[in-house]
Design goal:
Cathepsin B, Chain A, eight-stranded mixed sheet, 14 strands
Length: 317
């Protein structure tokens, strides 16, 4: 289930700083602030700086330079990452036949995929990539068909439809809560408007997903543009592996909120950062709203859109 997981290490988490919004780029500011809360990503970039330098990977180097400037010293400065965004857009268009993108407000989830695609480093991809074994089951004729594995950088929980499988199984006792650990390990979805190839029944197909590989960083997206319901989430996730006889523990590090709808709105981020207190270093959540940042929490709101968990530790079971 898990392989080569990298533990969360606050040594590689920067101190807080703000980012200029030079024109409808709050989505990118929020994404970058969230990624800076992922210590293993920062660690990999820092330890492989010379490799990225030799490859002239300008995006990686701009990320590394911003990280290094804020890793040990509190500047209380506001930084401009427009150059990072512009180079990323140019590289993405070069790889994708000048696909139209970056004109206005973009979706932060799509931009995570774009960021990882343009960085073009297999080790960075592995930090985010999970894999599901997938089957299609027909509830009519009971036929089970194996299909190719699903691989993705993000886990998606569709909450737009109040009658969806996920919404039906919300707990009602202490507010609306999805058991994220269970959902990620195994989940199903209806294959609407598709016929079974054996019995030709309509709307009888169910896709079954069984987790086979879990990455160091879990990126979970709540798809709820129309249904902005407050859905709780835990500070820790746990996964047991009977083969390795271990329990894997993940810690919540960042969240991204989106106010508005699928066409427009504003993004902010909450992410853990280092704080020096009486010569001691702690990591605490900060809220980042472009240039403004302040101590905060990682509590859910009705605008929570993306949450990030990082592998923290494993224990024997």
């Amino acid at each position: 289930m898990a392989s080569s997981l990298i533990k969360y290490n606050d040594k590689f988490v920067p101190l807080p700083f703000g980012l200029h919004n030079t024109g409808v780029i709050c989505y990118f500011n929020s994404l970058i602030q969230s990624l800076f809360g992922c210590s293993s990503l920062n660690q990999y970039f820092l330890l492989n700086e010379s490799k990225f330098q030799k490859k002239d990977n300008k995006i990686a180097m701009l990320y590394i330079n911003l990280l290094k400037e804020n890793l040990q010293t509190q500047h209380n400065k506001i930084f401009n990452i427009t150059n990072l965004l512009n180079i990323l857009l140019i590289k993405y268009k070069e790889k994708n036949n000048n696909k139209r993108i970056g004109i206005g407000q973009e979706d932060v989830c799509e931009f995570l995929t774009i960021f990882l695609d343009v960085i073009d480093d297999k080790n960075v991809e592995r930090l985010f990539m999970h894999k599901y074994q997938c089957d299609i089951y027909c509830s009519g004729c009971k036929k089970m068909t194996n299909i190719p594995d699903d691989k993705s950088y993000q886990f998606e929980i569709p909450l737009n439809n109040i009658d969806s499988y996920e919404m039906i199984y919300l707990k009602k006792d202490k507010g609306d809560t999805i058991n994220i650990s269970n959902y990620i390990r195994n989940n199903i979805s209806n294959m609407s408007d598709l016929h079974c190839t054996k019995c030709m029944s309509l709307n009888k197909l169910i896709k079954i997903n069984r987790l086979r590989f879990i990455p160091t960083i879990l990126t979970i997206t709540y798809l709820k543009y129309q249904n902005k319901k407050l859905v709780d989430f835990p500070k820790f996730l746990e996964y047991e592996n009977s083969n390795s006889k271990k329990k894997y523990i993940y810690i919540l590090t960042s969240s991204i909120e989106q106010s508005g709808n699928i066409h427009s709105g504003h993004y902010i981020c909450k992410s853990k950062r280092k704080k020096y207190t009486n010569s001691k270093i702690n990591t605490i959540p900060y809220l980042f709203n472009d240039t403004v940042y302040k101590e905060s929490d990682l509590e859910p709101t009705s605008n929570t859109y993306v949450i990030f968990y990082h592998f923290y530790n494993s224990i024997d079971i």
